[in-house]
Amino acid sequence: MYKLEIIGGPKLNGEVKISGSKNSSLPILFASILASGEVHINNTPHLSDVSTTLRLLMEMGSEFMLESDNSIVINSSSLKSLEAKYDLVKTMRASILALGPTLAKYGKAKVSLPGGCAIGSRPVNLHLKALEELGAKIEVKAGYIYAEAKELIGTKIYFDQRSVTATENILMAATLAKGKTTIYNAAQEPEVSDLINCLNAMGAKITGFGTSTLEIEGVGNLSGVAYSICPDRIEAGTYLLAGAITRGKVTVKNVKPESMRSTIGKLIETGAHISSTSDSITLDMKGERPKAVDIKTGAYPNFPTDMQAQFTALNAVASGSSIITETIFENRFMHIPELIRMGADLNLDGHTVYCKGVKYLNGANLMATDLRASASLVLAGLVAEGKTVIDRVYHLDRGYETIEEKLKILGANIERVQ
Ligand code: UD1
Fold first, then answer.
1. pTM, to two decimals
2. How many CB atoms lie within 10 A of CB 31?
3. Residue range 355-376, pLDDT digits in tens
């Protein structure tokens, strides 16, 4: 098992190219199930979650080719199995995205229930209720979801809570349903918009792009397409924070600044000087210690829960006190005990962390627990005195392409060791 060894200290400086978005790539790969031909996906990141999705689709009968330029050509037009098995689903909750498109295209699907995970119970009730509203018969037996529908019929769906993957699942299912589906209280995350763009390019008729009300006029079939995945705003935000926490100057390239407004706003509050072009953002701390900022997570366009852990690491060494409130996931604080072991002054009370910035953190042996918690430990390691060793790096490989290589380009002292 790999570990990351980091010697803290260097101010990061330089430019880093951001990969395609993980959270766009996964639904768009699953959307290939709906297409009647090849789907050519450009700007896909090299991540273990992408490999897991490809393995799952391959088990179902998809054929794909990885091309040298970060492209995947996938043909999922004639699946042989309509089942997503527990072995893979348990390693990646986004596998639930196999359900909507498989059911819509083949009238049947069997998908393992994902179960809970390190950051919370993460139920899928919204996905199932909405599919039932579209006319599917759903049964949950022995850990599997069995869904069946001769034909899905468009209807009005109101989500009690905004959910990214539930919105994506129902969007995909509704593209082939009979008549019009309206989704109210849909998630507005840029990755949902990316999926809508891709589905429309395949021939779907979806309107309401970027809003919380989406209308889908069902069509008879969808065709293959060539589509380029949008940049990963969470990866970009993490590298900007690496610049901020080390008091350095970092430019992230191949990004969409307009999708990162809440993160950029918070970075400006820390004292960062930010400038951007249409596809890059530069953060310059001018050598200054960041100021602590209060954070409250929320559905897009509010502050992303996927950046909460990284900002907690920044606040841990910032000047002043801060309050971090998590409203999306009930247990997304696995990084807190590890940061405390490094010397952070953090107090967890329910969904809120009270943080008093300290001048120094100490390097320590740490355990990565989930994807973004691990990213926060890397950030803390970059400023800690001495050596930090982070175990279970596979969590990071789910969402950050060659993180140690990109950080090295910026001047970090970091190695992947066995
Ligand atoms: C997606 C992202 C993840 C991000 C999260 C919130 C992907 C692959 N993952 O996860 O990185 O952290 O959005 O931005 O895109 N909920 C229910 N019932 C459901 C579905 C969700 O109660 O059926 C709750 C969840 O427990 C959570 C909230 O809704 O409290 C939002 O979760 P959701 O948006 O569904 O997260 P994911 O789509 O799993």
1. 0.97
2. 28
3. 999 999 999 999 988 999 999 9
